[in-house]
Write a structure and sequence with these properties.
This protein is of the alpha/beta class. 43% of the residues lie in helices and 13% in strands. It has helices spanning 2-16, 23-33, 40-45, 61-68, 90-93, 117-138, 153-166, 183-191, 201-209, 236-242, 260-271, 283-291; strands at 52-55, 75-79, 94-99, 144-145, 174-178, 194-198, 222-227, 230-235.
């Protein structure tokens, strides 16, 4: 964040200009001061499934918690760039931890801590593609902001970057965990499609612990949908897993036109790529679409 970063990077530059001090020395000093152990809340984080975690923290508390928690539900993979692979099982087995400002253990330009102004500018260029990927994760779940007061420019600048890269109209409403807030902060958040939730990180995770996980329900239950009037039974466990990646096309999500004019307009929107994709599967719609080509 530009306005809060400049005094910080100026201090770092002054330290580096001190005779006998180099970057390695400064990084080792920071590591010695951030030698913490994961809290119960960090370990509780591992007992839930997440699509991804984006953090501006240098520390490796989250990664350590996932590495040492015996009851974790996913493996945690730290990412410092956009070059990573995702498979279908990743949605269940792996949580991606995106370190936006580098990491204590980082050694190269992608993973080292952002301490100087040039470091920050480099991270700024790297974050753009990551925030574009954030939209793919948000489509599969809910975005929750944790650990920001929104009183300084750190979180504000990050939110603006997300909006700039993804587009405000494409972002869904999200949540921010805050113990308290004033009217100005609430207005700022709502303008950016963020709803404040009066709850701490620890309270949030404690509440999640009281809820059954999505893979603890009965696996033999089924969900019945109809496609072109034909009922189809799907195992609930499969629906939970695949609904994260696919849109189930069925009769209940089709467009219900109220008049011929509305139906024709809807079909036109479909041909232009702006309508429900199920419209093109419906038999009657397919015939009418063909006649209007």
């Amino acid at each position: 964040p530009r306005s809060t970063l400049f005094p910080y990077t100026t201090l770092f530059r002054s330290v580096l200009d001190t005779p006998g001090v180099d970057r390695v020395t400064v990084e080792e000093f920071i590591r010695s001061k951030l030698d913490f152990q994961p809290s119960p809340a960090h370990r509780a984080l591992c007992r839930n499934r997440w699509q991804a975690i984006f953090t501006t923290n240098y520390d490796d508390l989250i990664a350590t918690a996932y590495r040492t928690a015996p009851d974790r539900r996913q493996r945690c993979d730290a990412c410092f760039g956009r070059d990573f692979t995702r498979s279908q099982s990743d949605y269940i087995d792996v949580v991606r931890l995106f370190k936006l400002m580098g990491c204590l253990t980082g050694r190269d330009e992608h993973s080292q801590m952002a301490l100087s102004r040039s470091d920050y500018n480099r991270k700024l260029r790297q974050r753009g593609p990551l925030f574009k990927m954030l939209f793919d994760f948000v489509k599969d779940g809910t975005l929750v902001y944790v650990g920001y007061s929104f009183k300084d420019n750190l979180a504000r600048d990050l939110i603006e970057e997300v909006i700039e890269e993804v587009g405000a109209d494409r972002l869904p409403w999200s949540w921010a965990l805050l113990p308290d807030w004033d009217d100005a902060t609430e207005a700022l958040l709502r303008q950016r499609k963020i709803l404040p939730l009066r709850m701490s990180f620890e309270e949030f995770l404690a509440t999640l612990d009281t809820m059954p996980a999505d893979d603890e329900g009965p696996h033999d239950s089924t969900v019945t949908i109809t496609v072109m009037g034909v009922p189809i039974d799907l195992p609930q466990h499969d629906v939970t897993m695949y609904d994260r990646q696919f849109l189930f096309l069925h009769d209940q999500i089709g467009i219900k036109a109220t008049s011929t004019g509305d139906e024709i307009a809807a079909k036109r929107r479909f041909l232009e790529g702006g309508a429900d994709p199920w419209l093109g599967i419906d038999r009657k719609s397919t015939r009418l679409n063909s006649s209007h080509l």
